[in-house]
What does this fold into?
Amino acid sequence: MPILTGELGGFPIQIKVEPSPASEANELEVLLTIPKQSFNLIIRRKLKLGKQKTDVELMDSQVDDYYIIKTEHPDKARRFLQDREIKQKLYHFREDMLLGTSIRLQDNEMRYLMTFANVGDKKRPKIIRTIELMVFLAGRLV
It folds into this structure.
């Protein structure tokens, strides 16, 4: 399956598409190599219905109402995410994050995973904006 490698925003990037072992769909993986971090982080879009547990609340409805943040290091993750520009970017990104996807930060990798049957014209710009958000977040980690 296709693997695209290169550099984006000063960070090595790898984009891979392969068949999903669990279904007839494909999996898209975007991997940025970043400086090693002392905390891990998973950012997912919050569902509109029901209460979902988050490990980090920023006390800012522009982020808390739209995202679930999972981490083993809530204080470190909160300090990172409290940055005004990061909160602003996350708020503007809220409609672009597809359900069932996540941005994961662990050690020296930032990863975006998405399962799809096809990437149509509506999803393509959202995927590009997700990659742009990842590069922005990676730049704030340096």
Notes: Residues 125 and 131 are 10 Å apart (CA to CA). The chain has four helices and seven strands.
